[in-house]
Amino acid sequence: MKKWWMNEIVYQIYPKSFKDSNNDGIGDINGITEKLDYLKDLGITMIWICPIFKSPMADNGYDISDFKDIDPQFGSMQDFEKLLRESKKVGIKILLDLVVNHTSDEHEWFKKALEDKNSKYKNYYIFKKGIDGQPPNNWRSIFGGSVWEKVDDEYYFHAFHKKQPDLNWENKEMREEIYAMINWWLEKGIAGFRIDSITFIKKDQDYSSLPSDGADGLVTCKHKTRNRPGIEHFLLELKEKTFAKYDALTVGEAPGVDYNDFTKYIGEDGYFSMIFDFKYADIDVESGTDWFKRTNWKVSDFKNKLFKSQEEIQKIGWSANFLENHDQPRVLSKLIKEPEFQNETAAKALAILLMTLRGVPFIYQGQELGMKNFVRNNIREFDDISSIDNYYRSIKEGFTEQEALNFINLRSRDNTRTPMLWNLEKGFGFSEAKPWIEYSNHNDGICSINNNVYDFYKKLISLKKESEYSELITFGKFSSIEIDKEAIICFSREYNNKKLLVFINLGAQEVNIEAPTKIKNVILNNYEDIKILDKKITMKPYQGIIVEVSNDKS
Ligand code: NOJ
Ligand code: CA
Predict the structure, then answer these.
(1) Which of 112, 281, 420, 536 has its CA 20 to 30 A from that of 332?
(2) Do the beta carbons of residue 506 and residue 335 sit within 8 Å?
């Protein structure tokens, strides 16, 4: 069944690094409002704004101390309401980030829980006694160290940072408060939410230890706290009491969900509209939390994972496609192995890929400029708590300091959190003040100061939104096509007797291939031209093309 959100094109904003309107070095809500024209010109239809709520910023806003207030760094509720009004005027909807697996330890609820042992708020969180002077079990938190933090004679649980105590979803009263808060935001007229860490809300109630999986003697908490049986009750209730009443768009951050369970998550009666599938995003590492476990991936591995994701989701629902976000490295640096090819051409090839897959594309700020990773030479230059943890864990696992630095340069979440490079003037159009985090090495950190990549994104967006191929690109059936060349990614999209093929050479060698069908016309190409003779195509390094073919198998 068609839904209103299926043809949205989303742009993700990391507010701290998007645009600083008052020159204090920190991006803010008014900065977003200032840039609405830019976003409208690009053609996107919706923005997802990472958390803007009151927060001590231990995890840059994913540690909320007041769900119903805006952090002063970002502005005020009036500023937000203005953004909501102004964005409506230009046809851009707003998704907010919903963080309800945990709060900040500076949230009123948690403070009251600590102050008074008999307070009802004690049961809003997870407190346990230690065993023989040790924490209740050996689980490792996502950001490293034990999931348990001691206060007085007991411990509280945190799947992420110790300043992010987990809420106790077993407690109905707590759940009801969360639902009321969600509805309060939906009443304001936002389109919906991206929902943070939502598969962590159910914990195995035995809280038992498991065999260790690292040099720290701990074991990742994921086995006992992520996608655990019983979560379905919480997720269904959450949907029914909130999102469903408003026909809101919801995108669950749900790594690790098995394809067999996708129906429950995003099927016709699923918990969410869409979920992010990380199986192809984390291609370069064995696990998104252990960056020192790098893979030696090949294009065919990436392609198989991406295609599997598309095909599995197509059977039951809608995809949320992304190549970058605020937790991932820049895609040019991640997927293009040869530094000399991390350029405009490759950025455009990746744009073709993202924009022609079946599902809603999510473009991350700066991706449309071809921004790249930075290289930092000292651990002190990193802000991201996950980078710092991975650095020290790598060393503990036996790697040298240089190796550890290399792992985090490749994966650091700071890579996508450096300020937007709006131009090459002083302050790069982001701020006149020193930014809260260092800019990336701008000369090398961006491949498109001349708007070439931006214009290409714009073209692709308009092709998807308002061309004769719109319906096809949005609703067309996805089919993978096997081309016997390692670096070639090829798939078709098909709708009402119209058919497109997408070819991407994700490699540095020129390759000759044979198309499965005769080509009618080339719709988009990231090179000046393309050599096609009947079905024979010569694909240059990182060349990407979209072609129309006749649908009659000739
Ligand atoms: C996932 C978010 O995307 C990430 O940035 C954050 O650190 C964790 N969840 C914890 O909220
Ligand atoms: Ca500011």
Answers:
(1) 536
(2) yes
Ligand closest to CA 22: 2
- Length of the chain counted residue by residue: 554
Task: For ligand 1, pick from 59, 98, 143 the residue to mutate: most ligand atoms within 8 Å of CB.
Answer: 59
Please identify which residue in the block is written with the tokens 């923005």: 47
pTM of the model: 0.97
Taking the centre of ligand 1 as the mean of its atom positions, its distance from the CA of residue 424, in whole angstroms, is: 31
Contact 549, 531 (CB under 8 A): no
488 lines ligand 1 (CB under 6 A): no
- pLDDT of the chain, 554 residues: tens digit per residue: 899 999 999 999 999 999 999 999 999 999 999 999 999 999 999 999 999 999 999 999 999 999 999 999 999 999 999 999 999 999 999 999 999 999 999 999 999 999 999 999 999 999 999 999 999 999 999 999 999 999 999 999 999 999 999 999 999 999 999 999 999 999 999 999 999 999 999 999 999 999 999 999 999 999 999 999 999 999 999 999 999 999 999 999 999 899 999 999 999 999 999 999 999 999 999 988 899 999 999 999 999 999 999 999 999 999 999 999 999 999 999 999 999 999 999 999 999 999 999 999 999 999 999 999 989 999 999 999 999 999 999 999 999 999 999 999 999 999 999 999 998 888 899 999 999 998 877 666 666 666 899 999 999 999 999 999 999 999 999 999 999 999 999 999 999 999 999 999 999 999 999 999 999 999 999 999 999 998 999 999 999 999 999 876 54
Q: Which long-range contacts (CB under 8 A, 24 or more apart) does 72-77 make?
A: 73/16, 73/24, 73/26, 73/28, 74/15, 74/16, 74/26, 74/27, 74/28, 74/29, 75/28, 75/29, 75/30
Q: Which two tokens stand for residue 135?
A: 């924490």
From 196, 277, 290, 389, active-site residue: 196
Count CB atoms within 10 A of the CB of residue 166.
23
Task: Dig out the tokens for 367 from the structure.
Answer: 């991706």
Domain boundaries, the chain: 4-108+166-456, 476-549
Which atom of ligand 1 is nearest to 386's Cα? 7
The H or E element containing residue 244 is: helix 244-246
Taking the C-alpha atoms of residue 554 and residue 96, their distance in angstroms, rounded to an integer, is 48
Strand-pair category, 10-13 with 511-514: unpaired
327 lines ligand 1 (CB under 6 A): yes
In the chain, the amino acid numbered 414 is D
CA 537 to chain centre: 34
Active site residue 196: yes
Q: Find out whether 79 and 52 touch, Cβ atoms under 8 Å.
A: no
* CATH architecture, domain defined by 4-108+166-456: Alpha-Beta Barrel (3.20)
Q: Tell which atom from ligand 1 comes closest to the C-alpha of 197.
A: 9
Which residues sit opposite 366 in a β-bridge? none
CATH of 476-549, one of 3.40.50.300, 2.60.40.1180, 3.10.450.590, 1.10.760.10: 2.60.40.1180
